[in-house]
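#dry-run=false #mode=assembly
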Amino acid sequence: MGFFLRRLGYTVFVLWAVASILFFMFRLMPGDPRTAFIDNTFTAEQQQQLLVQFGLDKPLHVQYGVFMLNLVQGELGTSFRYKRPVLDMILEVLPNSIVLTLTSLLIAYAFGVVAGAFIAWQRGTWIEAVTIPIVLTTRAAPEFWLGMVFLAIFAFSLGWFPSGGAVTPGAQFDSTWAMMFSADFLHHLLLPAFTLALYLQGLPLLLMRSNMLEVMGDEFVTMARMKGLSEWAIVMRHAARNALLPVVTAFALGIGFSVAGNVVIETVFSWPGIGRMLVDAVAASDYPLAQGAFLLITMVLVTMNFVADLLYAVLDPRVTYGDR
Amino acid sequence: MMKLTGGITRSVLLASAALMIASPALAEGDPIRPITIWARTQAANPQAYQAAQLIAQAWQDLGLEVEVRGVPRTQQSDLVWYKRDEWDTTMWQMVGRPERSDPDELVYNLFHSSTAESGYNFVGYVNPEYDKVAEAQRVEMDEAKRQELVKQSQAIIAEDQPYMLLVFPTKVFAIDKTVWKPESMVEQPGLGIKNFWTFVNAEPVGEQKDMIVNSSDEMNAINPLYISGATDSWVTELIWDRLMRIGPDGLPQPWAAESYQWLDPTTIELKIRQGMKWHDGKPVTVDDVVFSFEAPATGDEAPMYKPFVEGITSIEAVDDRTVRMKLAQPNAAFLTSSLAKINLIPKHIWEPILADLVNKPENAEQYVEESRVGSGPFKYADWTLQQQVVLEANPDHWSAPKMQRWILRIIPNVEAALGMLRSGEVNFMSDYTGDPQILLDVAQEDGDLEILDSVDIGFQFLAFNLRHAPFDDPHFRRALSFAVPRELMVAAAWNGYSVPSNSIISPALPFWYNEDVLPIETGEEVAKAELAKGGYELIDGQLHYPDGVTEQHAR
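#status=ok
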């Protein structure tokens, strides 16, 4: 219980620190939110009005106080450019990003775990010699390049997949849920998810492989061989389970990162996600939107970090926290 | 003559001694400080960046130290707009918009001294003679006289060179001719085929009756009382009607108003078209029209539209189909700047909303009207954030569109947009920011595409900051401006897809364009002659101020 409360305390502290850093960082960075509105008839009075509207005419410490007060009430403010509540806008596009990154993560980890175990099993053979460089290449290749190549091959040339967006132009759905479970959405999801998965699978694959190699040298494996179990049973049922633990942690953290979206994939495939929204907001000095999005991401990351810790303790009885 | 020292004759020595006694001993001028040309990054605007490089090279040949710095747009805007003492030169551009078919916006706002401190005259050009001409053209109701004034303003600018005007870019659009009849596309000067008239007149060839256009920028809002961006304005234009519209000839024509008449230079009477209906079925009445012009003027609910109705001192319904407006002073651009800009909004929807907002800190810009009721040729159907906007044709409109739906797709990746044009996911390429040559090659390969290009009303230029020497000296500015041949800009920086410019008014507006200002003599020799006129000296390969002048603004 003490452990739990301590961790909770740390979490709150981290969130407060991140919120404060974000607040000051944006306001001390060069760049003025009014530049997004510059127009012919942008008079001095209008500029001043904008500042007042954004709350930027008040002294910094007053702004900070207002910001913190709103934050503890769950109020993330109003976007400078869209003029809509930040929370509403983030929640509208967040599901798209989460679906994309979670799908990619699941594919990447499912594949990576199995392939990593298999390649570890094939230690010393030509299969290992060929696949490791390939995996390293997928990890090193820039995502946008991979994305453009796949677009060119699978969308433009072969026409198997659409070239962008989350739905066909003109398609309308009753609700976000209806949209996400439609065949149209799935069709649009596959290419970006596949591209991202190709990039992500390098980590679980290599991690799994190196853990397996370690585990294969352990005594219980020798014991299992002595018992006469098949190589397959040893690898998949006994060794893999133990090698899996660090990969599970990585997966939990990966889920945390999924909330941040992936601005590169979202731009290449015109996928409506929070990554794009965030980068746009930062570029236009739309402080409330950028702060709100960053804060949300931080919250999820910190939570998933916590979950990963707990998960490890649950999966591996040898690991304990706190005092015994 | 005796030769004294290595070639110097006695008479020469005597002559120079005489000169030295005769003229006052002025110290030679300081070397001119290094100059920075600010620009957007190469990836963001490759043509302007390339132009900046060419300009820097030409200026270096004159003896100046020049550096080109590419920075993100917000940083550049921040510097140019809010730190007007901290830059010397910058690449900049004016975007072509329908409202700019009338010269008033640019002629006045860009160079009138009143907008120099914090408005659009960011170069700080102060010329009382120009001010008089700009003010005069604004109130001159006689077309021929106004044309003279506008041409005169261009001549003054060409003489003073506060901007180094470069080119009017050529905009390139593409349509899928198996979906849309190319003859039904309407050209509007300076805007190309991407305009209101095309959207209303486009005729489908076959089964596909939805027009799918692309945009690389996000949509911010769809609100008739908020000017939220260029892309947003295409949508707003289609959902809400206006009393007048800028026609395909660039001139304002009656639209929701059937006819208009100037009773005197400050009073205008408009007859409202009968039978118009809002998208919710209710009829458009003269009260709605009066409300549409009063709403932005009261309080601060629509601050961006307020300047366009401020000149109206009174507006009333004379009878159930006539509106009379009185202006504070004559305004030659009133039809364009106000009547073609203010959206007609339903009183029965907006009056309670605005009454409610009066007591709140938010204003109408933040209000999201779910149903978005207008009286335009298209009805609002759907808007999915970051994805698409779907509008449906309004069959009850007197100028009902021939298409079924108008769909805008947000596609930030220009290569993907090109691919979508070929696959049919987009059938009207309206926002192409890549190399026009690639588009032409694609069209040739594909066979289904038709490319249409036209000269923009917008223009690209290099701005001088006139607040600090030597940029406050017309000789210096003219020298720097004429050092670079405009044809070189067109060919080398814009790959041929532009026409040279020496005016803020585009040749796409032949009525206002002063063609006499364009033929300019350019080249290194011309520049050097101009510098000599100003007294600048080239010493040891570096350009110096005239004698006795020191560098006051070293950075």
